[in-house]
Amino acid sequence: MKSHSKISALLSALFMGLGQIYNKQYIKGLIMMGVGLFILITFAVDFQHAMWGLTTLGETKQTIDGWDIVQGDHSINLLIYGLIFLIASILVLSAHVANVVDAYSVGKKREIGIVPNGIKETLKTMYEKGFPFAMLLPSVFATAFLIILPNLFGVLLAFTNYSSPNHLPPKNLVDWVGFDTFIDLFKMDMWSSTFYGVFGWTVLWAILSTFTCFFAGLFVAIIVNQKGIVFKRFWRSVFILPWAIPQFVSILVMQNLFNGEFGPINQLLLDLGILNERLYFLSDPTLAKITIVVVNIWFGFPYWMVLMSGVMTSIDKELYEAADVDGANNWQKFPKITMPVLMFSTAPLLIMSFAGNFNNFNMIYLMTQGGPVNTSYQGAGSTDILISWIYKMTLEQRQYNMASVVSILIFVIIASISIWNFRRTKAFKEEDMMS
Amino acid sequence: MAEITLNGIQKQYEGDQAPSVTDFNLDISNGELIVFVGPSGCGKSTTLRMIAGLEDITDGTLSINGNVVNQTPPKERDIAMVFQDYALYPQMSVYDNMAFGLKLRKYDKSEIKERVENAAKILGLTPYIDRKPKALSGGQRQRVALGRHRSESEGVLDG
Amino acid sequence: MTSKLSRNLRLVFSYAFLIALVVIVFYPIAWAFMGSLNPGDSLSKTKLFTTDLSFKHYIYLFKETNYLKWYWNTLKIALGTMVLSTIFVVSAGYAFSRYRFKGRKYGLMTMLVLQMFPSFMGMIAIFLLLDRVGLLDTHIGLILVYSGGGIPFGAWLVKGYFDGIPKSLEEAARIDGAGHITVFFKVMVPLARPILVFVAVNNFIGPWMDFIFARLVLTSPEKKTLAIGLFDMITGKSNTQFTNFAAGAVLVAIPITILFILFQKHIVEGLKAGANKG
Amino acid sequence: MELKKIFSVLATGALTASLLAACSGESANKSAPTQPAKKPAEAVKLEPEAGATLKLWDNGGKEGAWAKAVAAEFTKKYSVPVKVEESAHDKAAEKVDAAGPTGKGPDVFHAPHDHVGNMENSGAIFENKLGKAYTDRFVDAAITGTTGKEKQYGFPLAVETYALYYNKKLVKEPAETWEELFKQAKEFQKGSTDKDRKYGLMLEPGNYYIAHSIVGGYGGYVFGGKNGTDVKDLGLDSKGAIQAGEFVKKIHDELLPLKNEDIKGDLISSMFNEGKLMYRISGPWDIKNHQDAKVDFGVTTLPKLENGKVPTSFSGIKAYYVSAYTKYPKAATLLAEFATSDEMLIKRYEMTGQMPASKKALETDAIKNDAVLNGFAKQLKYAQPMPNIAEMQSVWEPAGKAFTAIWNGQASPKEALTNATKDIKGKIENQQK
């Protein structure tokens, strides 16, 4: 007996749809061949050039001769177009593999005497088995091109010398330099001392801002949800306001409120006799850090309040009733029942919030622009966190490669903290989650 | 009018070491009432779910009324199943819960109405016909779950 | 008796705290509002209690700038983002929650990991990509960027919510004779309404606040969004129109705040879903 | 691949040829009578390329309105359509980098002159080939400012520098020396209370753009060398600069004991508008603001330092540049030339109030009689164009930081400036790789 499976798989591997035609699925095969042809025409020709661009980052510089401007290879564009093709080709390749697998399995069925599906049945099984893939398709495309591609590009930049002033295209070519930039970051005093300093503060900031908001939100939620408090909805609606107002607006307002000389907060505290002399909220390095953490509570507590209220109202009443029967009072019920439930169900969000604060660009950039100055830092201020430092590096100083290196480090840090934490939460271990 | 035959049915979940159901043979004739009894995890539900078409059958053949239905999707098997948690659609009223399957099978409106009302009467659900499942007691919910299949199919599996 | 007393005491303190908190929450808001009515150019000169008020900044917005046009642009982008991202996120979240297929685990891992990249790591790449497909400086391009960017987080959230819906419901529907599409639209989507509203509201709000990607993608002034329009008033050395900015900001904040309060219940639900399953 | 190589060899050859031509062109100018045949190609009358269409980027607002007017006239004259798009000039260089290669960039754009170095390095701008006949029309600073390491690029629109604003109601005779200013200001500040603050002088101390005037006045410098472009010779820790740091500290201690972070531009403006501020140091961009607030103010040179020198403010040159990504360099050059003709620059002054960069336009009566502009013009005589080499981008942040630290009392002037210099040196070295 002929090995239909092998022959058809081989044919399909040769060209999309051939194996299907061999398996007598003519319409399906023809459609697939059409798709294959389309890919070949639109894609394969440029592919080689794209890969050349990705590996060499270009060979000719821009030249100007009199009035003639001849554009050379633009390394950065070549890099991106190379990536676009790379990702597209992965998608195409997976389609091709699916095509081979399909041909193989249909061939296999033929070997045991099952007649291959006609086009009608094919469509039906496609609908039955392919439904989840169809649902995923739009997101896969969008993710591949709008998230993976840009991030991959960002990662790759770290391995080039793309930076001002000597490696800016199109007049210059950008080259692959391997890990040189990473080594620079840690070897050069100037960069590394800034990095360690900014990194330390970033971690501290992320922890402080996450926990202060968490507990502030928890506290407010407990107060509002007490028995005997009326107009619960009203209170919650008011406290949700800071969350609803566009952040870039309220941060700028806060910046004005906390102006050391002219801000009303200082004046108020002086008038009330709480202070004897002005506090320089935003110009003293330590005080500035405290100020942004405190101000951040204003922005961050509503989220947790809303969340905690939601979780608290959904805790099974029977738990409390059982505790009542056991003779527990309010002070015992809270740590024994409420708290564990809250912690359990909010832990994953706490981690996400930590990651979010780690990269809370708006807060730092709009509130202090990283200031006050820190004379021992390179390109960063006392309150700069890694992400705002990167922003300055890319936009103001055009050190694109160094910015990418720091981005990668941020990613590695956040990813490892998050994954380590997720692993410890129950949600992650559940068979259903990751099976 | 349903006869169900299980012939050498086997279920192997991917990643599990031992199969959940091995070489299970059973003939159920029309009108017969069958009860599976056993400790939890012994494969009762898996078998039922295979009959209903909710799980793929790893090996063996399942026939209903003499036709092999291994590959037939659940909706074409003409089987009903009452789930442990009743699986009532919370967003629909009792009436709509019971009428859902009929609507999907394109019965005409008057017939749906007649069948549903009839079933409701038998199960004593007429007063609650416009309520949502949430507003029913456990026993009432169970009856709705039964009732939604009463009108439409022949074989009933009680999970 | 003592317990009653302590209860009352507790309530008194609680109300005092709540009222204090209301003041703290409202103070910056009231201050920004008064700033927008303050006739000068500087926010720092705002007084909370004063009769020296003027609507000139609001008039300026409508007469001297394209404020309405920005508003309209932003509304379009916000609606587009809302629809598109909800489609992306719900379809992906549903597939991840309800189906078992090859690569599911890796898909979920990827989604998790992708959330952790610093957001503006690949801005240049996005710019050139949009250019390549001819979507640079178009609202559609920006909508795509926003909707795409929200997929990992949103899909996880929606997946978590669907995970909480008993599987038996959809199995019952399948036995009732429903196909994939019917199960999805008739049974699952109505049940997932809270999370859908949450995702939709979230994505609707995003474009009102972002000034980084909007500035990257949109270059022509007639396509500006509110956030850029307002931000331009206060950046650069000759742009110190803080009070015009405040006026514009007040008009942005009002609808969003209303939206937030209206959908409060759904937001709680959505967050809870995220909390339960992360 | 092979073709590409051949092509690149050809192109390099062409480049060398053109460089040689440029050199000999220069010598031709010097010894014009003996070598009339080698007249540079630039002198040939320019014609726009057939089918050219142009895109012009300028700021919005009044400058944008002017650009549109220019575009309309240009189209009338040359029948080349010009599309004007709004793009903030201080972000233009960056945007050209991104948009240029995609073909979405402008043909001509407005940028500040201190970006010339970077734009030259990345090859974003095309040389101004109009030669001496063109450049002679402009004030020197405008041309040096828009000249890069290799070539002259810009088509100057306006020159600006900062000077001393004074409120005429509060100041009878504006101070000529800092000594006088200190005296007047202290007198005025006597009436200041916590609730009703009054200040004699306000400036943004953390901005090196401003601080440089004092540094230069005391003989300090950023880069040494002939044109201030020797990046090996850093002068921020020179004696003059440290003296300047001490003087700035004195301003803080005696006149303006506020923290740098608390002094914002909008705040200074509103203090000035309310008549609670005698003097401020700022540029022409604040004119409109104060005129709108109906403040009776004057502008004059910065007061003399104790060594008798007028502080050397930084000047900025607003100029048009031809993008190196343009398909129509000739038409684009023509447009830039047209926009910077005396007639158009006078029109620009009328529409925007900015000081034109061309000598002839500066001679017109309207400008001569513009008291405010005159104040800036006087200061301009002492001004130094901001260095436009790319390395300058490494200076702003550390230098600003140093002056902030001095102002806020975080570091002594010597310490702060030595640190800054070290920092800048390191940055520049790092970038030379």
Can you offer a commentary on this structure?
Chain A contains 19 helices and 2 strands. The relative contact order of chain A is 0.09. In chain A, a hairpin with a 2-residue loop joins strand 1 (63-65) and strand 2 (68-70). The longest helix of chain A is centred in the first third of the chain and has 39 residues, at 119-157. Helices cover 73% and strands 1% of the residues of chain A. By secondary structure, chain C is mainly α. Chain C has one domain (66-277): MetI-like fold (Orthogonal Bundle). Chain C has helices spanning 2-37, 56-64, 67-98, 104-114, 123-132, 139-149, 151-163, 167-175, 180-191, 193-209, 212-217, 226-232, 242-262, 264-277. Chain C is flat. The relative contact order of chain C is 0.14. Chain D is α/β, with parallel strands linked by helices and 433 residues long. Helices cover 45% and strands 14% of the residues of chain D. Chain D is built from 18 helices and 13 strands. In chain D, strands 1, 2, 3, 4, 5, 12 and 13 form a 7-stranded mixed sheet that branches. A 4-stranded mixed sheet of chain D has the order 7-10-6-11. In chain D, strand 1 (54-58), helix 2 and strand 2 form a beta-alpha-beta unit. In chain D, 55% of the residues are buried. Chains A and C meet through helix 4, helix 5, helix 7, helix 8 and helix 9 of A and helix 1, helix 3, helix 4, helix 5 and helix 6 of C.
List keywords for this structure.
heterotetramer, B: 159 residues, alpha+beta, Rossmann fold, two-stranded parallel ribbon, 4 helices, globular, D: 433 residues, alpha/beta, D-Maltodextrin-Binding Protein, domain 2, 2 domains, four-stranded mixed β-sheet, 18 helices, 14% strand, disordered N terminus
